[in-house]
Amino acid sequence: MNYKLPSSNLLGNPLNKNKSYVIIGAGISGLFLGYYLKKANVSFKIVERKEYGGGLLQSVQTEYGLVERAANGFIWCKEIQGICDDLDLEILAPRPTSKARFIVKNKKLRKIPLSFFDGIRLVQAFTKKHQQPFETLGDFGDHFLGKKITQQVLEPAFTGIYGASADQLSFPGAMSKLAKAFNETAYLRPAFKKMRGNLASDERKKRAAGTHCFKNGMGELTQRLVEYLKDEIEWNIDGRDLKDEKDNLILTTPATISKDFFKNQNEILFENLRAVHYNSMISVTAFFSKSAFSRFKEGFGCLIPKKEGLHILGILFNSCIFDYRVVKDDLLSLTCILRDDTADLKQLNQTDEWFKSLIVKDLDALFGVEESPLELVVSRWKDGIPLYSPSLYHSWFTMDETLKSVFPNRNLFGNYTGEISVRGLAQSSHNLFKGLGIK
Ligand SMILES: Cc1cc2nc3c(=O)[nH]c(=O)nc-3n(C[C@H](O)[C@H](O)[C@H](O)COP(=O)(O)OP(=O)(O)OC[C@H]3O[C@@H](n4cnc5c(N)ncnc54)[C@H](O)[C@@H]3O)c2cc1C
């Protein structure tokens, strides 16, 4: 197979140790880059529009417990472990009660929502040959797993990460590591082996399983990075007001903002950035008494396939995943993730009361709700999750080439340039610095 894959998630020229940089944005992307630039003794500053850092990652303490406004954790990796060791920040491992992961089928939580015949189909997937490059994740799923398993298992899993359906997601964009493995083999089993083989064996041994976080939430990581970078960050500055054409800018802002840096300067970059579509996401964290549910199962959470006809896409069982998420043992904290698909974003602007009745209705169908939530925090993200569509994937190459030839002193980096997760952003930031003396 011949999947074209970007050589790095930083679009534009590679970093140069002898240059001085201005990073626009102190979200986790800008903070990771700043951390490594400082370690590599490269001159830089970060400018942030708000008076605080972290971007989407915000942790809030309420009367009943902790609320994460976006990411509730990260998949452990040695890069984040390295940063935390250096900053003396202890990583919080998941609780044993977070082991079970569920997919909803007929409004019931199932660990494996598949029949005996689906199992046979899965085994057969390993003998099938990959013949045509897959454009979308749906094409991959249909070919190897069939429509039913794709809709029942693959799609909800990816909706949980990318907030989009399988047919909307680019296969090499959303599954770049598997696409890379398919460049060497046409079969699924050796492809998975190659993906695993890319991890050095000592790293595999050291690997901690599952989602991790911090005692006081993801905000603790961004806070610690902000403290480490305090001399380099300038607050309350809109990066678009920087006028010096000679500045070496690394834009870590969402594409909706980054496009403005090219307005009336370069139509290709402006249009490609303007075309990045963001799904509007709503995260609703609700605290309940444990006694409020007549049939709750402990676990990490559940994914909800579209055909179940519910509004919630997935639920995280926060107080089962981590300690310190509720102030008393007889409380439950759940985060419900929703997406607003309406053209005029009608849902996003609804009141908290409206969301309350919506999620209570869904939760009642799943767990039997007998009491109202004690507290509810609604976080609305209009530009929540970039859509990893085939057109976004193709645009990476166009934007990379255009930056290199027309704007050699500008880079784009963020959750729309190849990695969406906190772990992926840490790993791709780290990879950029391999040549600059960072281990
Ligand atoms: C609901 C939800 C749940 C998620 N769950 C998870 C999860 O569980 N695990 C996981 O790994 N990931 C998760 N993600 C994804 C992850 O949180 C994001 O991809 C990541 O935080 C994005 O970081 P960023 O720095 O690229 O962008 P942002 O967080 O958007 O940061 C951009 C920064 O730029 C600043 N800025 C904007 N405009 C300007 C300007 N003009 N001048 C200067 N500064 C500016 C902003 O104020 C902000 O600080 C989730 C995302 C959402 C929305």
Strand content: 15-25%
Give the rounded overall mean pLDDT.
Answer: 93
Q: What is the CA-CA span between the terminal residues? A: 33 Å
Radius of gyration: 22 Å
> Segments where pLDDT lies below 50 for 5+ residues?
none
**Which CATH top level class of the largest domain fits?**
Alpha Beta
Supply the CATH architecture of the largest domain: 3-Layer(bba) Sandwich
Helix content: 25-40%
According to CATH, the homologous superfamily of the largest domain is FAD/NAD(P)-binding domain
Small ligands present: flavin-adenine dinucleotide
Number of strand elements: 16
> How would a crystallographer describe the biggest sheet?
7 strands, mixed
Topology of helices and strands:
Blueprint: E1 21-24, H1 28-39, E2 44-47, E3 59-61, E4 66-68, E5 74-75, H2 78-86, E6 101-105, E7 108-110, H3 116-125, H4 137-144, H5 147-162, H6 171-174, H7 176-182, H8 188-197, H9 201-206, E8 211-212, H10 219-228, E9 233-234, E10 248-251, H11 255-258, H12 267-274, E11 278-289, E12 301-303, E13 314-316, H13 318-321, E14 331-340, H14 352-367, E15 375-386, H15 390-406, E16 410-412, H16 422-432
Parallel strand pairs: 1-2, 1-10, 2-9, 6-12, 10-16
Antiparallel strand pairs: 3-4, 5-8, 6-7, 11-14, 11-15, 12-13, 13-14
Helix pairs in contact: 1-10, 1-16, 4-5, 7-8
The structure holds flavin-adenine dinucleotide (FAD).
